[in-house]
Design goal:
Layout: H1 6-14, H2 19-24, H3 29-35, H4 37-56, H5 67-81, E1 90-91, H6 108-119, H7 141-148, E2 152-156, H8 159-171, E3 175-179, E4 185-186, E5 190-191, H9 192-198, E6 202-206, H10 214-220, E7 225-231, H11 247-256, E8 260-266, H12 284-289, E9 294-298, E10 309-313, H13 315-323, H14 325-330, H15 334-346, H16 353-356, H17 358-363, H18 367-385, E11 389-401, E12 404-419, H19 427-437, E13 443-444, E14 446-448, E15 451-455, H20 461-472
Parallel strand pairs: 1-13, 3-6, 3-7, 7-8, 8-9
Antiparallel strand pairs: 2-10, 4-5, 9-10, 11-12, 12-15, 14-15
The protein binds pyridoxal-5'-phosphate.
Pyridoxal-5'-phosphate binds at residues 158-160, 186, 190, 231-232, 234, 264, 266-267, 298, 309, 403.
Length: 476
């Protein structure tokens, strides 16, 4: 840095090409074609302003401004500005269904279907048999009923919307009976009491946090009761002196009193996961069989599909739900339906699911397979972080995520980074974590027990090669 005198500055300024001249130069032809005049002009002005500010503050390195230099500054600025904000990352958090990282990854069948729906007109609401207007739910409700045993089905934007719509359509200005042990909050401000009041329904709490009995439900039923509701605790578990009334006890009580039971199942799995050694979850079909009149669940949790909320159950209740004005506001778009249908079709061949359905493939990936991946990635990560750090492949535990089975963990493998000299790493781990986050394709891990941990469960072959390549070019 050195001070530039007023005289020198004026001389430098005089050599700066005019905006018009820059825009008309051959160097800018391609940029104008790609980004358009308005954007390029804005970027040129900004680059010239920056140059002047630099010159005025005495930074001599800016003295040699020419059109070629200006072009590369402008090009870099435009490229950065036009980069997508929604970026692919590597999910090495160990949480397979990570809500903040977009939950379920979709199989190729769904990707192809979405691509078609994006680029070609489709019979979204057009009955090809009659040539008349159709209903978008008709595309998919038979399939959902086949897989769940329900009489009828409808699909909305997410499970929160499914619950809101169900309560609005069936319990507005009336009471809904829920156990105090099930008044849960799911991440991102979904709270049963709040949804209830949004829907205009009155929450009638019964029992206590840890224990609710059938007689609690029985005594709460009155002329104002519209529904009995059960909510999957999802992200918490209570243990010890507890009592929950099972659905197959509540349903007969409700039905004897002429009432319906709705179940918010949260994740809503369609197959028994225990057949693959995963923790057991009640399926949607079992919930219907146990007497639920309505079941709501997410499309992008254990189901492994796109973001959606599915409502299945009694025909008359689904009909009422579909007629409610909120259904129009909460309906799904064609991309969701396009993605959901092929995912559901995969469930028709359950014996192939662990290979075809991405979510299930990741959840059932053998720890040994993940260990081999960890051993392959280890040298690249060690190289990127350098000798000050020790990178080792170690066993760890993954989580399913998205509120599914929070207390269960899956044996996995990953890379663990500590100080090579055995000292406490502390803040230095934050710097490594930041370095990973700032890569071309950000790498998201987690820090725990004074070590940076990268669980490789969700790193499948193609991604593994890309990660290794990316790490080769990095250096802490
Ligand atoms: C996840 C969850 C929801 C919210 O589902 P979204 O699809 O995220 O809207 C609602 N209820 C329960 C019990 C859940 O687990």
């Amino acid at each position: 840095m050195s001070d530039v005198s007023g005289f020198e500055l004026r001389a430098l300024m005089a050599r700066v090409p005019s905006v018009e001249k820059v825009m008309a130069s051959t160097e800018f032809v391609a940029l104008l074609a790609e980004y358009g005049r308005t954007q390029v002009l804005g970027a040129v002005r900004e680059a010239l302003d920056n140059w002047r500010a630099g010159a005025q503050s005495g930074d001599v390195s800016v003295s040699a401004l020419d059109v070629a230099q200006l072009k590369s500054a402008v090009e870099a600025a435009l490229r950065q500005r036009n980069e997508s904000r929604l970026r692919s990352v590597f999910n090495l958090t160990g949480t397979v269904l990570h809500t903040n990282l977009g939950r379920a990854l979709l199989p190729d069948e769904a990707v192809q279907a979405v691509m078609k729906a994006l680029t070609q007109p489709a019979n979204l609401e057009f009955d090809l048999g009659t040539g008349k207007r159709g209903d978008r739910d008709d595309l998919i409700d038979d399939l959902i009923c086949e897989l769940t045993g329900a009489e009828a089905a409808t699909v909305v934007n997410n499970n929160a919307a499914a619950v809101l719509l169900t309560l609005s359509a069936l319990a507005s200005k009336k009471e809904v009976i829920v156990s105090r042990g099930e008044l849960v909050e799911i991440g991102g401000a979904f709270r049963i009491p709040d949804i209830m009041s949004r829907a205009g329904a009155k929450l009638r709490e019964v029992g206590t946090t840890n224990r609710t009995h059938l007689k609690d439900y029985d005594e709460a039923i009155g002329p104002q009761t519209a529904l009995l509701m059960k909510v999957h605790a999802s992200n918490y578990a209570i243990s010890g002196f507890t009592k929950e009334v099972a659905l197959d006890e509540i349903a007969p009580l409700a039905h004897a009193r002429g009432l319906a039971v709705a179940v918010d199942l949260g994740s809503g799995t369609l197959v028994d996961l225990s057949q693959w050694g995963l923790p057991r979850e009640t399926t949607v079909r079992e919930t219907i069989e146990a007497g639920a009149d309505l079941v709501t669940f997410s499309g992008d949790k254990l189901l492994g599909g796109p973001q959606a909320g599915l409502i299945v159950g009694r025909r008359d209740l689904i009909a009422k739900i579909k007629k409610h004005p909120l259904k129009r506001a909460l309906r799904v778009g064609k991309l969701t339906l396009a993605a959901l249908e092929p995912v559901l079709q995969l469930y028709r061949a359950p014996e192939r699911l662990t290979e075809r359905l991405t979510t299930l493939r990741l959840l059932t990936r053998p720890a040994d397979d993940i260990r081999l991946a960890a051993e392959r990635v280890q040298p690249a990560l060690q190289h990127a972080f350098g000798e000050r750090y020790a990178v080792t492949a170690e066993p760890m535990f993954s989580q399913i995520g998205s509120g599914a089975l929070p207390v269960d963990v899956l044996p996995s493998y990953g890379l663990v980074v500590r100080m090579a000299d055995g000292k406490r790493a502390g803040r230095q781990l934050l710097a490594l974590e930041k370095m990973l986050r700032e890569m071309a394709r950000p790498v998201i891990g987690r820090i725990a027990d004074d070590a940076l941990r990268l669980d490789l469960r969700c790193l499948e072959a193609a991604d593994e090669a890309q990660l290794i390549e990316q790490l080769k070019g990095a250096r802490a």
